[in-house]
Design a protein that fits this description.
The protein has 320 residues and is α/β, with parallel strands linked by helices. Helices cover 49% and strands 15% of the residues. The strands form two sheets. An eight-stranded parallel barrel has the order 1-2-6-7-8-9-10-11, surrounded by seven helices. It has a two-stranded antiparallel sheet with strand order 4-5. It has helices spanning 2-24, 30-56, 63-86, 109-117, 153-156, 170-177, 194-210, 224-233, 249-252, 264-269, 272-279, 292-300, 311-318, and strands spanning 91-94, 122-129, 135-137, 142-143, 146-147, 183-188, 217-221, 240-242, 259-263, 283-287, 305-308. The chain binds magnesium ion.
Length: 320
């Protein structure tokens, strides 16, 4: 038991050292910094005590260790209360669906089902509109060498994804999403022609409404004008996030967007934007967070939504 406690103390000390750099970065407010420090300490202590509990619950546990279990149980309860008072939930979003798993592919129907199957909070996918007005789900502007926004649907409809699925339309994706619980994070891609992008926004919002999914959808986009269009077209309260990374929360708040949705690189350069967004009532999503180091950074900083290609590893890190 002594060795176990010593290893936990060492682990805790190492974690404090790793976290120190983030604690000395200038914060938007002293209160925000204090809340984060309290949340970090509570979270770490809670994890350590939970691990101790599991160890002490082994069959060979002695009477002495049982009393330690009781004490640890009390501490866990206390920490849960403290943690709940100082931190909000952090959610996992699958980037282009949960594709890095058997039978799946990026932006496939399967990736949406897989994201839902692991209980991911949300599943993101990308949407383009063809020249003849069909909304297609794909990340790149081209598929098999064909530029989607200038192509006709008949040129694309027989294309296959890497897992053998047909290239999906938004309609097919939403139809599948109807029976799932995961939130649908719809990224509207910036189109070359402004009129086509506006038409894409209109069609996306209309389709979501017709499918009865308005409460399940959130919109994200790199397009500044697209963000404004989506905000105007979607029902009041629909979350719309901006992806491009050059505007601070204060510069965005008057547009009524739900928050910032920036890359891990941008956020590491501007960590103060997290507190700034929160103080303005906005949320923060960070992408694409794949390394343990970046996941830990987002967790420690109180990022609301973490978009990743490794959702199960992140889930384990959030709730070991
Ligand atoms: Mg995307």
């Amino acid at each position: 038991m002594k060795r176990l406690i010593a290893s936990y103390v060492a682990s805790f000390a190492r974690w404090i050292c790793r976290s120190l750099h983030s604690l000395v970065v200038p914060q938007a407010s002293l209160a925000g910094c204090a809340a984060r420090v309290a949340s970090l300490v509570c979270r770490k202590l809670r994890l350590l005590v939970c691990r101790s509990l599991r160890f002490a619950s082994l069959p060979q546990a002695s009477l002495a260790s049982l009393s330690q279990v009781s004490l640890a149980g009390f501490v866990v309860l206390l920490l849960l209360v403290l943690d709940g008072a100082t931190a909000s939930a952090q959610e996992v979003i699958c980037h282009r669906g949960y594709w890095d798993t058997e039978g799946s592919a990026q932006n496939s129907i399967r990736s949406l089902i897989k994201a839902d199957s692991i209980g991911a909070w949300g599943s993101e996918f990308d949407v383009w509109m063809t020249a003849d007005g069909v909304l297609v789900v794909n990340h790149d502007e081209t598929f098999e060498g064909i530029t989607i926004e200038t192509a006709k649907w008949k040129q694309l409809k027989n294309m296959r994804l890497k897992n053998g699925e047909a290239l999906p339309t938004l309609e097919q994706m939403l139809e599948c999403g109807k029976s799932l619980k995961t939130r649908l994070i719809v990224e509207m891609k910036p189109h070359t022609k402004r009129e086509q992008e506006l038409e894409a926004a209109r069609k996306i919002v209309k389709m979501v409404k017709e499918m009865g999914l308005e409460e399940r959808v959130e919109y994200i986009t790199f397009s500044y004008q697209g963000m404004k269009n989506l905000k105007e077209l979607a029902p009041d309260g629909t979350p719309v996030y901006y992806l491009n990374g050059e505007l601070s929360p204060s510069q965005l708040v008057e547009l009524g967007v739900a928050g910032i949705d920036y890359s891990i690189g941008v956020m590491r350069d501007h960590p103060q934007w997290i507190d700034e967004a929160h103080s303005l009532g906005m949320k923060v999503n960070v992408w694409t967070v794949n390394s343990d180091r970046d996941m830990e950074w987002c967790i420690n900083y109180g990022v609301d939504f973490i978009t990743t290609n490794a959702p199960e590893r992140l889930q384990n890190m959030l709730e070991p």
